[in-house]
Amino acid sequence: MLDIRNLNARVEGADILRNLSLSIKPGEVHAIMGPNGAGKSTLGNVLSGRPGYEVTSGEVSFRGKDLLAMEVEERAREGLFLAFQYPVEIPGVSNMEFLKAAVDARRKHLGLEEMSSFDFMKLARETSKRVNLDAGFLKRGVNEGFSGGEKKRNEIMQMMLLEPSLCILDETDSGLDIDALQVVAAGVNAMRDSERSFIVVTHYQRLLDFIVPDHVHVLAAGRIVKSGGKELALELEAKGYGWLEDEVA
Amino acid sequence: MNHTVDKVAGDFQRQALQLAGEQISAPWLDRLRFEGSEQWLAAAWPGRRTELWKYTPLQSLQRGNFSRWGAGQRCDLAGDALLSLDAIRLVFVNGEFDAEASACEAVEVVRFSQASAEQRAIIEAHLGKIVDTKRHLFASLSNAWVHDGVLVHVPRNVTLEKPVYLVHVSTPEAEAATVNQRALIVLEESASAELIEHFISDSQEQNGFVNTLTEISLGANAKLEHYRMNLEEEHLLHIGGVHAVLQRDARYHGFTLAEGSTLKRLDYQICHRGPGAHADLNGVYLPRNNQLLDYHTNVEHEAPHCTTSEVFRGIIADSARAVFNGRIHIHPHAQKTLAELSNRNLLTSDKAEVDTKPELEIYADDVRCAHGATVAQLDQTAMFYLRSRGLSETQARTMLSFGFVNELLQELPREEVREHLHRRLHLLFAREHFSA
After folding, report:
1. Can you tell me the distance from the alpha carbon of B150 to that of B112, in angstroms, rounded to the nearest whole number?
2. Which residues from chain A sit within 8 angstroms of residue B389, using beta carbons?
3. How far is the first Cα of chain B from the last one, in angstroms, to the nearest whole number?
4. How close does chain B come to A50, measured CA to CA in Å?
5. A112 touching B (Cβ < 8 Å)
6. Element (H or E) spanning B140, and its range?
7. Which of B154, B218, B306, B413 has the fewest C-beta atoms lying within 10 Å of its C-beta?
8. Beta-carbon count within 10 A of A71 CB
9. Which pLDDT does position B5 carry in this prediction?
10. How far, CA to CA in Å, does B233 sit from each of A160, B7, B206, B259, B321?
């Protein structure tokens, strides 16, 4: 699904990712943990092609294609999805128009016809129910006036509508109370299957109680310093990140 | 040195007056017309050094060879050109009333020519008295030209159930014709009404000159919802003004949207005369090609405890030019005033231009005022967000540019207006270069 080799990236002149390598197979859930400033969010932003994140060397292959050669929107249409840590408010652009345009772009790429407005409306309503969002929000501006929890649930809803192959959740648990966390986790778990992969970026172990990963990686100073199974997350929860940084040093 | 220009300007003034003079009207309007003629002829023609017209040259008006449009004319508008709205509807084609297209059975709404003695007294008491002709040159021409117009008079404590919908159509047959449009809205104490003014032309070829003037008197605690849509095509010259006076606790809610044309100059003059009055005015302007679109707004806070909120947004495409001048004047006695004015612009080409000037003049010490004017860029984070969901860069730009003006549309309480403009702007954005 995804093969990252010796990836180096910089943001505003500072080297953030250093020789990062990671391989993800279809159906796997990888958690990426690490202290603040380790480069966790940078990884998601680099993979999705955010302007300002400059890849200096390395290769990324996504479903057999050169990911780094693609434009932001091509990556999305190809099936990469980044759930934002801070979803953007876009007043004046209705959720419904935005979501339909996104779904149509993906469908067109897959050689499918655009959905009729009626069918899409129906699908959007059903999906909003699955993440406990009132259907009235579809008429409102994108994330306009949403609470932190509503914004994150909207991200999960977009993920459900777009049915991506690889989902990157960038600290989706930050700022969520336990109820919202469970809604988000249930949404993610419902989408897990043998073809779809996830990268769950988080600072805390708590999310991983609900979304149980196959692999856990610790990112420090821009590279993966330790990998293991789900029990690694518990170890980190108990000991913190300090011992790893010492070990690396 | 400016001899030639002066001569041409003078010609226009005389020609316009001659056309005005040919207009036949009821004798009781003679006095207003005479005064208007005097003022119009005596007025200095605006030039580059005239502050109120600094960025808006009138050559296109001076160059025109105008005639008066007399004959009745039906128009064939596309089925969706008008709002489908249960309203008191008056349609004017090239300034002439079109009875067939209208539906105006309401005692509160009457044309000047049909006014009863009582209504005539109301017209005489207000018409030409709300507008300041010294500050608004074309108002004196309008006075000189008055022959018909629409009076909306709502008595004390009455709420007009249906909106008043005034449609002004310009057709290509009226080439180089001049049209004078007049409306007078008088709401007595605690009365309330909704007014929708809709200007359209059914062809790009229209090149007439339309001079419109709407005067509004709001009594104590009266409330008016007012929409004004300037959707005429390319070549029309439109000079228009809305002039309102608000008594104690009156509320004026205004929305205006204009597409550009060769020359469009639109003035809003709002005067808070009694304490506790409130006005909000939102506007959208969308000039393109070589169009010129000029909004001048002026709010006079003469009384204490009044509030004003004004938001104007524009997208300027191609080689078009926009002018926005928003003045708020707070008089010495107008303590506890709250006033806000914001103007934001998107330029979608290197040749597009906007001249924006917010002016706050404050002569009271206990007031809260804010103003700001910017030439904005599309939000790069929002761009990335949309593209990360698969939208192309062009799609994302169009969506964000549309959103920039739609923010003001989506708040409109009148659904039919909102939907109509939403549809129209969608088509416009798909066809023209309004994406930043």
Report:
1. 6
2. 76, 98, 101-102, 105, 158, 162
3. 42
4. 7
5. no
6. helix B137-145
7. B413
8. 12
9. 44
10. 44, 30, 7, 8, 16
- The separation between CA A65 and the C-alpha centre of its own chain, rounded to angstroms, equals 19
Chain A residues in contact with B402 by the CB 8 A cut-off are 92-93
Whole-angstrom CA distances from B345 to A129, B174, B316, B435 are 38, 34, 7, 12
Name the region of A6 (left: φ>0; alpha: ψ -120 to 50; beta: rest).
Answer: left
Of A72, A76, A93, the CB nearest to B399: A93
The structure's pTM equals 0.88
Q: State pLDDT tens for residues A200-229.
A: 998 888 889 899 999 999 998 888 988 989
Q: Which residues of B touch A98 (CB under 8 A)?
A: 386, 389, 399
pLDDT value for B203:
67
User: What does the alpha-carbon distance between residue B292 and residue B287 come to, in Å, rounded to a whole number?
Assistant: 7
Q: Which of chain A's residues have a Cβ under 8 Å away from the Cβ of B382? A: 88, 90
- Average pLDDT of the segment spanning A183-187: 90
B208's enclosing H/E stretch is none
Q: Which residue in B385, B395, B407 is closest to A92 by CB distance?
A: B407
From start to end of chain A, where are the E strands? 2-11, 14-24, 29-33, 53-62, 65-66, 80-83, 90-94, 141-142, 166-170, 197-201, 215-220, 223-228
Rg, chain B, Cα only: 21
Containing A46, the helix (H) or strand (E) segment is: helix A40-48
Complete edge-to-edge strand list for the sheet that includes strand B223-231: B96-97, B88-93, B164-170, B192-201, B223-231, B251-259, B278-286, B307-316, B338-347, B368-376
- 8 Å CB contact of B382 and A90: yes
Q: Which residues of chain B have pLDDT under 50?
A: 1-5, 7
Mean pLDDT of A17-40: 91
Residues A99-158 pLDDT 10s? 999 999 999 999 999 999 999 999 999 999 999 898 888 989 999 999 888 999 999 999
Tokens of A158: 């977009």
pLDDT of residue A242: 76
Residue labelled with tokens 């009055």: B277
Q: Are the beta carbons of B170 and B208 closer than 8 angstroms?
A: yes
Res A136: pLDDT = 87
Query: Measured between CB atoms, which of A75, A77, A92 is closest to B404?
Result: A92
CA nearest to B411, candidates B231, B282, B286:
B282
User: Looking at chain A, how many residues does it have?
Assistant: 249
